[in-house]
Amino acid sequence: PKRGFSRVRFQKRPESINLGLIDAHFNDGDEVNFEILKKKGLIKGSGYGLKILGDGELNKKVKITANALSASAKEKLEKAKVEIKLT
């Protein structure tokens, strides 16, 4: 077996959510951020930020505050002209 130090236990991974879930649970003009998603029960755990993934379609004009975006999510959000704030 391998022995030694591993950083896997100490990695800080962001919580992730798909655009389809955002579209299903939010209305036009709503703000989407880590705290609101946690209150609604859409993400679990303490998390170290929020990453938006591009699965699904977003047809509503929401304001998104996240730490990271996937390439497909960025493309879809720019096409839908959604306000994005990366922290």
| Anisotropy-based shape | elongated
End-to-end span in angstroms?
Answer: 40 Å
Helix % is 25-40%
Strand and helix order: EHEHEEEHE
Q: Main beta sheet, described?
A: 3 strands, parallel
Question: Which properties best describe this structure?
Answer:
87 residues, alpha/beta, three-stranded parallel sheet, 3 helices, 6 strands, elongated
Structure, described:
The chain is of the alpha/beta class. 28% of the residues lie in helices and 23% in strands. It has three helices and six strands; from the N terminus they run βαβαβββαβ. It has helices at 19-25, 34-40, 71-80; strands at 15-18, 31-32, 50-53, 63-66, 68-69, 83-86. The longest helix has 10 residues, at 71-80.
Task: Provide the fold topology.
Blueprint (H helix, E strand, L loop, with lengths): L14 E4 H7 L5 E2 L1 H7 L9 E4 L9 E4 L1 E2 L1 H10 L2 E4 L1
Parallel strand pairs: 1-3, 2-4, 3-5, 4-6
Short description:
The chain has 87 residues and is α/β, with parallel strands linked by helices. The protein contains three helices and six strands, in the order βαβαβββαβ. The mean pLDDT is 92.
